[in-house]
Design goal:
This protein folds into three domains: 114 residues, Butyryl-Coa Dehydrogenase, subunit A, domain 1; 106 residues, Butyryl-CoA Dehydrogenase, subunit A, domain 2 (Beta Barrel); 148 residues, Up-down Bundle (Butyryl-CoA Dehydrogenase, subunit A, domain 3). About 3% of the residues have low confidence. The chain is α+β, with helices and mostly antiparallel strands and 379 residues long. Helix content is 50%, strand content 17%. Its cofactor is FAD. It catalyses: a 2,3-saturated acyl-CoA + A = a 2,3-dehydroacyl-CoA + AH2. Its EC number is 1.3.8.7.
Length: 379
């Protein structure tokens, strides 16, 4: 693995950091308090090419790699994890699946509008089976080969209340035959699709989650994204990329918490001495920085391996697990350094902690029930 970024990647980081500070950060607290998704901000990021990093220029993308994608998500997360998560979800669970697995008809219908930000994507990702039951996931399809009928419910659909189209996974209900799973693209205004109220969360509050109910919702063969025989590859790729994205978000949050704490330690005096000169504070900052650097390298390694076509399931899961823990720890330590100010909303710290804890749950991968430990042990 190369331990240095390319000139283009360094320039991308600098550009996205400046954009995030000027456009994303100012209203991040307001979006969090009011649980508000800012569609104009998303469209602004899409107009800069940030919503289509790994998609080829043929379809309006940037033609970049997954390492560049991780850098973009990291820098946006540094000031607002929710904005980064919404950007990542749109790319990972809507635009990229159509690009990687969709037929030409789907690409022509949706891809250029997704990469430009004209359309916003969401997803109803599958949960794993536990003890013979499907957790929080009862969608099923039936009908002829040319047109299928979707029925069922999903408790946590990412961006459902604001998205224009949804990636939906469903299983067939057949007697005496093995069930198969398929993935469909379903437009938000499709008859039979009903979206519930926004789910209130402790963290990532401006990233929308809703319940969804489909009752006799018709899906044409043209909307079929992934066939049963492709599902294993499809879900493996989504799992890897979801881990990399969540890990990059965690590194960005940890970096933001560290920078805020370090800046405060260089200004705050106690008994006439800057608190950063006290060993207790300087040790905290040094430990934070060490863990953040280690987490960043794990994320970049996983993204690099994905770009090189190498196996990265274990590396992505390790990066996700370590980075999420690092983000929580960095937020807690930053609050300790800021003292009473750490509990105030305008200093970001309490938001970093809430977002980091939320990211450590399955919501950090768009509601996809992915067990880091099993990937690490069994990969």
């Amino acid at each position: 693995m190369q331990f240095s970024l390319s000139t283009e990647q360094d320039m991308t980081r600098a550009f996205v950091r400046e954009f995030a500070e000027c456009e994303v950060a100012p209203h991040a607290s307001d979006r969090d308090v009011h649980e508000r998704f800012d569609r104009k901000l998303f469209e602004q990021m899409a107009s800069l090419g940030l919503a289509a990093i790994p998609i080829s220029e043929q379809y309006g993308g940037a033609g970049g790699d997954w390492l560049t994608f991780a850098i973009v998500i990291e820098e946006v997360s540094r000031v607002c994890a929710s904005a980064a998560a919404a950007l990542a979800a749109h790319t990972l669970f809507a635009a990229w699946p159509i690009y990687a697995f969709g037929n030409e008809g789907l690409k022509e219908s949706y891809l250029s509008r997704l990469t430009s930000g004209q359309l916003l994507g969401g997803c109803a990702l599958p949960s794993v089976k536990r003890h013979g039951a499907i957790n929080d996931y009862t969608l099923a399809y039936s009908g002829s080969k040319n047109r299928r009928e979707l029925n069922g419910r999903h408790s946590t659909v990412l961006q459902a209340g604001v998205a224009d189209l949804l990636l939906v996974f469903a299983q067939s209900r057949r007697q005496k035959r093995k069930d198969e799973s398929l993935a469909f693209i379903v437009e938000r205004n499709s008859p039979g699709l009903f979206i519930g109220e926004n789910i209130h969360k402790m963290g990532l509050r401006s990233l929308m989650f809703n319940s969804m109910h489909l009752a006799h919702c018709s899906a044409a063969e043209a909307c079929l994204l992934s066939k049963s025989e492709e599902m294993s590859e499809f879900l493996t790729s989504l799992s890897q990329l979801a881990h990399i994205s969540a890990a990059a978000q965690a590194v960005g949050m940890a970096q933001g918490a560290y920078e805020a704490a370090a800046a405060y330690a260089k200004q705050r005096k106690q008994f006439g001495i800057l608190i950063g000169k006290h060993q207790g504070i300087s040790f905290k900052l040094a430990n934070m920085w060490t863990r953040i650097e280690a987490a960043r390298l794990l994320v970049y390694q996983a993204a690099w391996r994905r770009d090189e076509g190498l196996s990265c399931s274990r590396e992505a899961a390790i990066a996700r697990k370590y980075s999420a823990d690092c983000a929580v720890e960095a937020a807690i330590e930053a609050i300790q350094i800021l003292g009473g100010y750490g509990y105030m909303q305008e200093f970001r710290m309490e938001r970093y902690l809430r977002d980091a804890k939320c990211l450590a749950s399955k919501l950090g991968t768009g509601g996809m029930d992915i067990d880091c430990f099993s990937h690490i042990v069994m990969a």
